[in-house]
Amino acid sequence: MKLVYGIKDKPKFTQIVLFALQQLLAIMAATIAVPAAINDICGTTMSSSAALFGAGVGTIVYLLFTRGKSPVFLGSSFAFIGPMITAFGGAVSMAAGYIGLIIGAAMAGLVYVIIAIVVKFCGTKWINKLMPPVIIGPTVAIIGLSLASSAIGQVTTSNVPGGSTYVALICALITLFVTMAVSTYGKRISKLIPFIIGIIAGYAAASIFYLIGKWTGNASLMIIDYSAFVNCGIFSLPDFTFLKGGMEGLKAINGTYIITLFAAYVPAAFVVFAEHLADHKNLSSIIGTDLLEEPGLSRTLLGDGVGSMVGAFFGGCPNTTYGESIACVAITRNASTISIWGAAITCILISLISPLTAFLQTVPTAVMGGVCIALYGFISISGLKMCQKVDFNKNRNLFVASVIFITGVGGMVVTFGAVEIRTVACSLILGILANLMLSKEKDEEEAADK
Q: Residue 102: what are its φ and ψ, rounded to 5°?
């Protein structure tokens, strides 16, 4: 792919601000969805602002470890929702749960550190043999396809009870069509910020429907909720996770609780490691640089692992590289890591400035759904492009790809007690097993050639 801005390029300051905001909008919905999901399930009070702050700080840590050579944003990981619920469960107090989030994230981060050390001394060739393009390509495609139902669910969702699903769908389609048109036909800077323009168009449409509904008394037209602006103030410090546990939380922790956390977080860390590989393989194909070699897989793993620890210290949520961020790079062809630095700093500032946080919270779910259709679609297509050089005339490759696609599209999830192996990880693991089992075909072909 021909990039408009490469990794080391430095756009103008005004462009950096716009690029940073676009990255933020691309990852925002998923990042704040994780603490919201935990609150709904556990009745906790995790802060979305703290999650944004943690994502920003975690991304800065990642950029430092990778020496600014990997243009991807880190956000709250959905793979750790199960372990986070476990941290709030059991016979310990709720306060201990908040400290448990930090301890669990530290355990997961250490898994990354250990793997990074192994990679540093053993190299990455074994990873390329274990996960060739016939595995990585379909897995990346499944990452996007597994999110498809989430995007479709969003496009008909109203943020106000009683809001019309048809109005929500119209706003989502306006967002999507404007984004596509600007990305395809836009000139100069507009072509680099299609998501910002699309979201503004969708937000404006939702606001027009709201005003019409207010004027006519038709509540079904009002799908946008402005209540976040009420008494929001100017500046507020997020409820950081490390402040919510305190000494009482530490006193409530016992050996059984630590073992429970270990059993929940460590397996999930291996799952996210697989997604880490797939994301970086995908990003490498987009920017034309093998990130597993430069800056190196050991550095990306350390950045991701330590970034998760730091992010959870503030926001409670372990972080991971975001497919939405990678899709944003692919669509806009802007791989400048300066944009990621700007997004991380903007994320931190927005978490501290109440009106800005309130504005982001008022962006209609349907509007974000319209954007996500494009983002998740690009993730899937990127995976398929990685399969271009795979020879599907061979049964081995056909079976491996088939196993990954069917288990992924079918939504396979396997649960062992508190440990949940989610769809992408299930597909990847089964793909690796199928490839290893059928590797004899390749050996026989090579022997015949000789």
A: -70, -45
State the pLDDT at residue 231. Answer: 75
Give the model's confidence band at 447: pLDDT under 50 very low, under 70 low, under 90 confident, else very high.
low
pLDDT of residue 91: 41
What pTM does this model have? Answer: 0.79
d(CA 231, CA 249): 31
Per the prediction, the chain carries an average pLDDT of 86
Q: Which two tokens stand for residue 122?
A: 């053993």
Residue 370 · residue 171 · CB < 8 Å: yes
Predicted pLDDT at 339 = 93
DSSP string, 214-226: HHHT-GGG-----
Q: Which helix (H) or strand (E) holds 420?
A: strand 419-421
Band of residue 192 on the pLDDT scale cut at 50, 70, 90: confident
142 phi and psi, to 5 degrees? -65, -30
φ, ψ for residue 76, nearest 5 deg: -60, 135
Strand partners, 415: 420
Residue type present at position 18: L
Pairing of strands 74-76, 319-321: antiparallel
Q: Which one, of 332, 326, 324, lies nearest residue 180 by Cα?
A: 332
How many angstroms separate the CA atoms of 93 and 386, rounded? 48
Vertex 338: Cα angle to 333 and 342 (nearest 5): 110
Tokens 């990880």 — which residue?
Answer: 425
Return the structure tokens found at 148: 């498809």
